[in-house]
Every structure is written in structure tokens, then in C-alpha cells.
UniProtKB/TrEMBL annotation:
Taxonomy, superkingdom: Bacteria
Gene3D superfamilies named among the record's database cross-references: Winged helix-like DNA-binding domain superfamily/Winged helix DNA-binding domain
Stated name of the protein: MGMT family protein
InterPro entries reported in the protein's UniProt record: ATL_DNA_repair, MethylDNA_cys_MeTrfase_DNA-bd, MethylDNA_cys_MeTrfase_DNAb, WH-like_DNA-bd_sf
Residue ranges of every copy of the Methylated-DNA-[protein]-cysteine S-methyltransferase DNA binding domain listed in the record: 6-79
Keywords: DNA damage
Native source organism of the sequence: Amycolatopsis plumensis
Pfam families: DNA_binding_1 (PF01035)
Length: 107
């Protein structure tokens, strides 16, 4: 992995605001990373100083080994989970300029 991509992933994760979440896939797409797993690897190796708790799996759940700490941190920011799943339609971060993909409240 090149350093430019690594730093781009870090910058995007750092820009996810409190009270919102993003998926590993969201971050990968924004950064131009080849896969969401690369985002996870960057967080695991070099994410201690980032808001790592705001990054979830595609189904809105934390990684099993992080579930309790991650959901507690999210709850402190106002992000509530139903069981162990965060409603991505409600809490997903929409970077500036990104439009809704469908009518609000449809589901």
C-alpha cells in the first residue's frame, strides 16, 4: 500500500463527524482504496488516534471483538443501536455534496 492512499484513508476517517457513522466500504470508495478490508487493516495498524468507533461493517454492526466499546462510544455521541446494529439510513455520514439516493422515509 502506498503512503498517499494510507494518509487519504486516515484523513477521511478523521473527517467523519461525531453523531454519524460510515462503513469500511464508504471509506474505501471515498479514498479510492481497492477494498474495505484495506480500511480495516489501516485502522487496526494505525487507527488508535482516529475516531475508529464511527466505522462499521456494511450491515451496520461493529466487529465482534469491538462491539461493546464501539457501541458505548457511539451511544455517547448520540448514535443509538438496535441491539448491536446501527441504522445506517439514520446515522450514515453523507459527505458534503453527496445527495440522498432515494425518498426519505421510504423504509
Amino acid at each position: 500500500m502506498d503512503d498517499v492512499l494510507h494518509e487519504r484513508v486516515r484523513e477521511i476517517i478523521e473527517s467523519v463527524p461525531a453523531g454519524t457513522v460510515a462503513t469500511y466500504g464508504d471509506i474505501a470508495a471515498l479514498a479510492g482504496a481497492p477494498s474495505p478490508r484495506m480500511v480495516g487493516a489501516i485502522l487496526a495498524e494505525d487507527g488508535h488516534d482516529l475516531p475508529w468507533h464511527r466505522i462499521l461493517r456494511a450491515n451496520g454492526t461493529p466487529a465482534p471483538h469491538l462491539v461493546h466499546d464501539q457501541l458505548e462510544r457511539l451511544r455517547a455521541e448520540g448514535v443509538l443501536a438496535d441491539g448491536q446494529r446501527v441504522d445506517l439510513r439514520k446515522y450514515r455520514w453523507k459527505p458534503d455534496g453527496e445527495e440522498e439516493t432515494g425518498p426519505e422515509g421510504l423504509f
